[in-house]
Amino acid sequence: MTVETSEPLYTADIDLEPVRQCRLAIVGYGNHGRSHALCLRESGVREIRIALRDGSPSRAKAEADGFEVIALPEAAAWADAISLLAADEAHRQIWSDSILPFRKPGQALILCHGFSIHYGLIEPPADADIILAAAKGPGGAVRQEYEKGKGLIGFWAVHQDASGRARELALAYLAAIGSGEVGIFPTTFREETVSDLFGEQVVLVGGLVALAKASYERLVAAGVSERMAYIDCVHEIKYLADLIQARGIAGMYEAISDTAEFGARQIEGKIAGPALKAVFDQAMADIESDRFARKWVETYEAGDAMKAERAADRALPIEAAGADLRRRIYGATK
Ligand SMILES: NC(=O)c1ccc[n+]([C@@H]2O[C@H](COP(=O)([O-])OP(=O)(O)OC[C@H]3O[C@@H](n4cnc5c(N)ncnc54)[C@H](OP(=O)(O)O)[C@@H]3O)[C@@H](O)[C@H]2O)c1
Predict the structure, then answer these.
(1) Is there an atom of ligand 1 within 6 Å of 59 CB?
(2) What CATH number should be reported for the domain whose range is 11-188?
(3) Confidence (pTM)
(4) What is the pLDDT of residues 208-243, one digit of tens each?
(5) Which position among 32, 36, 91, 113 bears the catalytic label?
């Protein structure tokens, strides 16, 4: 039995004052940055400023939402806690160029993903609380769930507890973005990082996209129309994902037709064979060493990361089939 047995904490168990009393700078105003800022303000955090790079396209949105926007060095000098919600691959540059040289002594650092601490892209000063407050899921969902009176499942960890109060700040932060309504669990920076990277690489993004593209191409090669192939191999993913989220894998199998279940059971074991295990082992080895992280940060810092791949994807027939379907059924233009 390997089910995690630690009990979650809920809003009723948590004092929000440690975060409410903070001067909090949120670095980045993307999916997580915007959602966290709006939720924290509604949860009673009075002093929030948004720290953005010069010329940031997000400035207008943050100001329209009623936040004061400041430069990164100014935030570093002002805040009691920095919530670093910029892209992970930029953390090393942001930290060394714009935060560390200007940083207020004793300032806490809050992260939503363990990446930059686990791989040593940020080396914490001895006087800093280093906190993981990860609401698990896309940033937009943090806000959507909060507006429904809920939140995303939260995970907290403390890498360094200089103040002796890091745990309290981690829990208060997560409760203030809604995670206390569904449950907050302990983790470690290593566990959150390895699990997050592996899950997105082999299942949620890389694995899913590989299966969708290859199966679409095989159906079209068999003479099926592009529209029908797109519906069966891409469009319907959402319905299955919703079933799995609501009922688990066994529950999903019970909810679909017996024909679909029988066919899937013939194939499942064949896909999950030695070739897949080799891909998974390699992905895990690259994540557990720092090979993946180093390669990604170096690629980003060299500039124009993934520009060619993105352009090539846009030109694929599968994208035209999807765009045509969305235009016809939803009137969407992309
Ligand atoms: N716990 C989870 O399940 C989970 C899920 C998703 C993401 N996350 C984490 O949340 C954090 C933010 O992710 P996100 O999805 O919100 O990203 P996002 O939507 O792509 O937003 C990234 C933000 O980073 C800023 N940024 C990028 N490069 C920068 C630079 N060089 N200097 C200053 N700012 C820069 C962008 O600024 P501009 O607006 O100026 O372009 C943007 O505001 C990451 O640490 C990510 O790993 C956690």
Answers:
(1) no
(2) 3.40.50.720
(3) 0.94
(4) 999 999 999 999 999 999 999 999 999 999 999 999
(5) 113
